[in-house]
From TrEMBL:
Protein's organism: Limnobaculum xujianqingii
Matching PANTHER family: GLYCINE CLEAVAGE SYSTEM H PROTEIN, GLYCINE CLEAVAGE SYSTEM H PROTEIN-RELATED
Protein name: Glycine cleavage system protein H
GO cellular component terms attached to this protein's record: cytoplasm; glycine cleavage complex
SUPFAM superfamilies in alphabetical order: Single hybrid motif
Annotated family: Belongs to the GcvH family.
Highest taxon above the source species: Bacteria
Residues annotated as domain Lipoyl-binding: 22-104
Lineage, highest ranks first: Bacteria, Pseudomonadati, Pseudomonadota, Gammaproteobacteria, Enterobacterales
GO terms for biological process, alphabetical: glycine decarboxylation via glycine cleavage system; protein lipoylation
Record's keyword terms, sorted: Lipoyl
InterPro entries membership: 2-oxoA_DH_lipoyl-BS, Biotin_lipoyl, GCV_H, GCV_H/Fam206, Single_hybrid_motif
Length: 130
């Protein structure tokens, strides 16, 4: 099933409605360009619960490490395990092959709280590297 990018978080993640109450999550092209070459990541495991705006994994590049914050509360129903072997897919194809995980939500109204456009296009701010 091909994803369609439609909403964003303030944390430079994209979220697309994938199937029924499932949403696919990844980082934006702007985020991967800012981070540079991604060398490692940790994803939430299938079956785990995630809570909106709380860390559920991280992405490590040659420049920095940034948390992945859950854009929606729910249960992880899929993780892109191919990224564990080939994290560079995030740099090569952030909106297709570089997706991170799929979350199933009970409350689809959470979708309405997401941004309509990428945050750097709205406020001119970049990613904050720690």
């Amino acid at each position: 099933m091909k994803t369609k990018v439609t909403k964003f978080t303030p944390y430079f993640e994209w979220v697309s409605h994938y199937h029924q109450s499932q949403y696919r999550v990844g980082i934006t092209d702007f985020a991967q360009q800012t981070l540079g070459e991604i060398v490692y990541l940790e994803l939430p495991q299938t079956g785990s619960m995630v809570k909106k705006d709380e860390p559920c994994g991280f992405v490590e590049s040659k420049k920095s490490v940034v948390d992945i914050l859950a854009p929606l509360s729910g249960v992880i129903v899929a993780e892109n395990r191919s990224l564990l072997v080939n994290p560079e897919k995030i740099n090569q194809s952030p909106y297709e092959d570089g997706w991170l995980f799929t979350v199933q939500v009970d409350d689809s109204q959470q979708w309405n709280s997401l941004l309509e456009s990428e945050p750097h296009l709205e406020n001119g701010k970049g990613i904050q590297n720690d």
